[in-house]
Amino acid sequence: MKYFSTRNSSKKVSSIEAILKGLADDGGLYVPESIPEIDIDLLEGKNYKEIALEIFRLYLTDFTEVQLKNMIESAYSDQFDIENLVDVKKVDKQSILELFHGPTLAFKDMALSILPYFMVEAKKIKNVNEKTIILTATSGDTGKAALEGFKDVPGIEIIVFYPNEGVSDIQKLQMLTTEGVNTHVVAINGNFDDAQRSVKEAFSNLKLRELLKEDSFVFSSANSINIGRLIPQIVYYFYAYLEMIKQGSIYKGDSIKISVPTGNYGNILAAYYAKEMGLPVEKLICASNENNILTDFINTGQYDTNRDFVKTISPSMDILVSSNLERFIYQISNGNEQLIRDKMNDLKENKKFEIEKELVDTIKKIMIADYVTEEETLKTIKTCFEKTGYLLDPHTAVAYSVSENIGENILVVSTASPYKFGDSILKGLDINTDELDVEDINFKISQLCKKSIPKSLVNISEKEIKHHRVCGINEIEKTIKEILKVGSKND
Known about the structure:
Blueprint: E1 2-5, E2 8-14, H1 15-21, E3 30-32, H2 48-59, H3 65-75, E4 87-91, E5 94-98, H4 109-112, H5 115-126, E6 131-137, H6 141-150, E7 156-163, H7 169-176, E8 183-188, H8 192-204, H9 206-214, E9 217-220, H10 227-246, E10 256-261, H11 266-277, E11 281-288, H12 293-300, E12 302-304, H13 325-332, H14 337-350, E13 352-354, H15 357-366, E14 367-371, H16 374-388, H17 394-403, E15 410-414, H18 422-428, H19 438-449, E16 469-471, H20 476-484
Parallel strand pairs: 5-15, 6-7, 6-9, 7-8, 8-16, 10-11, 10-15, 11-14
Antiparallel strand pairs: 1-2, 1-3, 4-5, 12-13
Helix pairs in contact: 1-5, 2-3, 2-10, 10-11, 12-15, 16-17, 16-18, 18-19
């Protein structure tokens, strides 16, 4: 399987090159030359790791089967708190896919636990001796999952930028208390879009890359712009479908709808890839919070970032520039790279773009889009808990709410543990948190969900803060140079 940029299909690279580079030189995102099909019958009776192997061998053809098996076993180990890594639970009329049983309590663990193994093995195969710099912007969950996955990995440094006031208290503490001699966490005085834009500019900065190369550094990414992040996310959709059959929620062959709380568009894009591979999906449901730019785009074809950025209780979705949308438009336009170049240039120059009605109609055959307000999100958390005893985190509540009246056979993707957003959940349940600290809130959540506090969060407020660096939105390049000790201070 070869890969090429969404903006130029003429230059093909191997899967390991795409993983190591992260972002194409022209600023485009790597896509597979084709989306392979898979027979679901082949996956029946297999556990999560075995399903992962079947899917990885289709996309990651530069690794041997033995290498893939070893990486899967190493990554998906006892750091997950349940045997099959993810869980599917029936809650009222909907099935909820719990993706938060990994070390950092968020769905990003499903990919970021194995991406470091992909990269280390790829470097061996390609005989790469340079130190890889993982450069990542996070809206909350990617940061900690990437830090956890890459900490103390030889030959790799990881730098994570996050919006200083745009993540939950738990998310911030998780990142700032990360150990590892190769980890660097930087708060920026801006929002996630500012961080993501600056990180992409650093990737595309030829002068900076040449400067780093002089000191044997090379960039890569742990964001979902990296195809090595995206492919592992396909696995859990096939696993969930088979679980729904086992649980009697659907019959084999039934089509399902998948409701995804969506920010950077990677998770729902993985669901789209699964659909194209043969998973029986009737509709994908793109669920947004009040930063509802994707809802507007899917319903009208207009993508306009000239709007207010809203800070919400579902901060991982507080995004106005959804990177993986580029891959989706590329796929539905039959690989129209000129279209991608034009639209991405419009976005860069005018902060907006528009696609023709024909493409909008194509999207609507695949996808439904809607959003819910903060008030509706809080109400959904309360109503669901009172009716079923199940605690929804604010992101899952968005997806749950949007899909409530869209029919049957719905799989709601739960992207984060309630513990990561305990303050907001308690607010939704009308519990006053003014006098509660982080430990008190965690204890309250444990009482409500009748589960012990995850080990990683026990006494988290007492852990030593390891990272103190803060920078402005125009200081990311300077900060990278300072961390890596390259260039002069006057650059």
